[in-house]
């Protein structure tokens, strides 16, 4: 016998106790209030969960974490004996909103089923790591979108940790000098955008952005701009994996891009379908909420 939980974990390649605990701890930290790491089941208890021979069900905090790990499933359903089928098991029928379905299509199948990772860029200043306020605001806009409209488990990590593995879908915030951006520019040919940095006379760093269609943009304090790019790093091996970049040039660039993504993803999805794209938005006033679409490049087909 095997529980539905065991089948779902096998589908996600999380059969080892250590792998399960890693996912358990990530989801536990998303609860309100969050739970610190180390509260997952012991090894013997974990294998009992999978066996289908349990008496009773897990206690309260385990229930909350498990339902966070598997959106759409109740704990009662997770510990039922799974029926052997060729297509695996699926959550009990529910009626997701049209908005939720469209948003999951925009994010890609992998993110919708395995969870969203939001990536912040970490800057090293002396002995301290800091996150730019502009980048953090952009992340918060998108985080709020996911919390309002989906049941997708969402984690937040720094870009250095994610760039070292690259085995997941993610939404990355910030542009020049960011590890995940560099990974994309080094591994995908041709990239949808390139970034060039140069020092100015007053020791500031100017950024120059060029899109795949030849369009060029420069950073400006007067009219900051943001970009939103959705790419498939390996469509043959991972057709449902998207890397989404939400970034900017100049002050409020990333925050404006994050606000635009959180509030205008629907028309972007309607125009782009499942294709790769890069959108340029201009922030026209002294508020993130003034961001408006200036230019959109859509690939003609999924690149191989």
Mean pLDDT: 82
User: How much helix is in the residues?
Assistant: 25-40%
The major sheet is characterized as: 7 strands, mixed
Give the percentage of residues in beta strands: 15-25%
Number of helices: 11
Overall outline: elongated
Brief descriptors of the model:
single chain; elongated; alpha/beta; 3-stranded antiparallel sheet; 304 residues; 7-stranded mixed sheet; 22% strand
Short synopsis of the structure:
The chain has helices at about 5-10, 15-30, 45-50, 60-70, 75-80, 100-105, 110-115, 135-150, 160-165, 180-185, 255-270, and strands spanning about 115-120, 125, 130, 155-160, 170-175, 195-200, 205-210, 215-220, 225-230, 245-250, 275-285, 290-300.
How does this structure look, described?
- This protein has 304 residues and is an alpha/beta fold.
- Helices cover 36% and strands 22% of the residues.
- The chain contains eleven helices and twelve strands.
- The strands form three sheets. Strands 4-1-5-10-9-11-12 form a seven-stranded mixed β-sheet. It has a three-stranded antiparallel β-sheet with strand order 6-7-8, with no helix packed on it.
- Helix 8 (133-149) packs parallel to helix 11 (253-272).
- It is elongated, with a radius of gyration of 21 Å.
- The mean pLDDT is 82.
